[in-house]
Structure formats: structure tokens, C-alpha cells
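User: Let's play a game. I give you a shape written as C-alpha cells, and you guess the letters that built it. Ready? Here's round one.
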């Protein structure tokens, strides 16, 4: 768990967290050359927290000032150390309002919102723009530094593992829209919570969008093949995820549910007592 320097104003630290396999760690980031913002106080484990604190406490000895701790969203593998680490370091916690509402036990002292600039002073000041990017989680935020061409992306994409969109807190339509928005930033590097930095983020964002659309097309084709009286999610999963190991089907079921919610919203499917049917596209002949 050694810190990794990504740029003069960006350092990463990976800590063990209860995230979804095959991922095992969540990346925290220290942003800023003099003022330092710590992103993703992720780990709930005592030994990992001690290592995280040792890392954070090196910055004052390097002539840098800790300015705060920022949460990208409320999931446990991103905030497991938030209250403890903020207390130990006596730092304010920054989060979106919708994230703060999910974490009554975390002392969020500053609510951040879309378009807000977080200015970190230093030899080369950096300006991180807050992007509200719901879809994976309602309060999810990313941070974009235009001059550096860097974007901190939390759980929007990953280079280890996959990203779940669960209808209990996510929205597949919005998630895809936000991926397209991130793609259009034209960033030169993306910093994910899980896995290595992404050197061509626009290509990966595009890949994610294409992958989701292909999966959705398989789900819609399966619905049409089932016809009346429709199909349940457990019936759809083996067809739509026939290229996925059966051990992953419980997670696939969540994704199918999210795609079905999107298809219903777009008028392409309907649901009755847990059974889903395809509807003809608007303007098409039944």
C-alpha cells in the first residue's frame, strides 16, 4: 500500500475495502501541491486506517496543508473510514447533499454541488470542478481539473471489476447519460476508485456506453422472444447474460432490473406482477 505519485499535484493510496470482487482495494487521492484535498476515505479496517492516517500525516511534513476530505458517494467501500479519519485529522468533510442525507453518522460540514470550483492553492494552483454524476448513486460526484486534463471518477468506471447500477439507488438511463458527459470532457487521464489510472478515458467511457447498450439490446431481444405472458428477471438473466459466469448472475439480475426500468421509462417494455413484456417502439407497426 505505498503511495503512488501520478502528477506533482496528484497522489494515490490504495486501501483494502469490502468492495466487490475481483476488486479488493479502493483508491484514495490526494489532490493539490500545497493545499491538499483527500478524496475517498474508504477503508473501515483498523490496520488500513492506521496506514491511511500515516500517509495523510506525511503531507504537513512535506510543507503541504490538509484542507478537507471529500466523498464521491455514500457506498461503504468509499466512506468506511470517513467519520474516524475526519475526527483523527480534524478535517471538514465535503459531500453532495444527497450523499450527506445517506450518512447521518458522518459529519458532513460542506455540501458541494454541480459546477462548484474547489480551488487548491500551491505553486501551480488547481481548480477542481464538481460534476454531479448520478446514475450509480444519486449523490455521486466527480472532480474535473481542466488544465491538468484529469478527472476523478469514483465509481463511474473501473479498471478492476465492474460497476453495478442497482434500481434501489441507481438509474441506468441517467448513468449512461453521465458516461456520455464524462466522455465529452476530453480528459487525458481518469482516476477511478478501483484500479489503475485510465490514460484514454474517453475511449473507456465510450466502451462502457456501448457495452450497456449492447446488453440492453440483448434484454429487449429476450423479451421479444419470450412474448406473452412475458418473462421474469430470473428468466431473463441466463439469456441476456449467457456470456457471464453463473456465479455473477445475482449481480447480473440487478443490472437487468436497471435496464428494464430504463426500457419501461422509454416505453419499450411493460411490467405486470413481476413479468416483463416488450412493447413496439414508438411509431413502429405492431
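Assistant: Ready! My guess for every position:
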Amino acid at each position: 500500500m505505498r503511495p503512488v505519485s501520478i502528477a506533482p499535484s496528484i497522489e494515490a493510496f490504495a486501501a483494502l475495502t469490502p468492495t466487490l470482487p475481483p476488486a479488493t482495494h479502493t483508491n484514495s487521492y490526494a489532490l493539490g501541491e500545497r493545499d491538499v484535498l483527500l478524496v475517498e476515505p474508504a477503508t473501515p479496517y483498523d490496520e488500513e486506517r492506521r496506514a491511511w492516517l500515516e500517509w495523510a500525516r506525511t503531507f504537513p511534513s512535506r510543507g503541504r496543508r490538509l484542507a478537507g476530505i471529500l466523498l464521491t458517494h455514500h457506498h461503504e467501500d468509499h466512506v468506511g473510514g470517513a467519520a474516524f479519519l475526519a475526527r483523527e485529522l480534524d478535517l471538514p468533510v465535503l459531500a453532495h447533499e444527497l450523499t450527506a442525507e445517506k450518512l447521518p453518522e458522518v459529519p458532513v460540514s460542506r455540501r458541494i454541488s454541480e459546477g462548484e470550483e474547489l480551488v487548491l492553492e500551491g505553486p501551480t494552483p488547481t481548480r477542481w470542478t464538481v460534476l454531479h454524476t448520478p446514475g450509480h448513486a444519486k449523490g455521486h460526484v466527480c472532480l474535473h481539473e481542466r488544465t491538468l486534463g484529469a478527472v476523478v471518477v469514483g465509481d463511474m468506471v473501473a479498471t478492476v471489476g465492474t460497476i453495478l447500477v442497482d434500481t434501489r439507488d441507481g438509474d441506468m438511463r441517467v448513468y449512461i447519460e453521465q458516461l456520455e458527459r464524462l466522455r465529452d470532457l476530453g480528459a487525458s487521464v481518469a482516476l477511478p476508485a478501483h484500479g489503475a489510472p485510465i490514460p484514454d478515458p474517453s475511449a473507456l467511457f465510450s466502451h462502457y456506453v456501448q457495452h450497456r447498450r449492447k446488453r440492453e439490446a440483448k434484454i429487449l431481444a429476450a423479451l421479444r422472444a419470450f412474448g406473452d405472458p412475458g418473462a421474469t428477471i430470473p428468466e431473463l438473466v441466463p439469456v441476456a447474460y449467457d456470456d457471464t459466469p453463473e456465479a455473477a448472475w445475482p449481480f447480473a439480475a440487478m443490472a437487468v432490473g436497471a435496464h428494464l426500468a430504463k426500457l419501461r421509462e422509454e416505453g419499450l417494455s411493460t411490467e405486470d406482477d413481476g413479468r416483463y413484456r416488450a412493447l413496439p417502439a414508438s411509431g413502429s407497426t405492431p
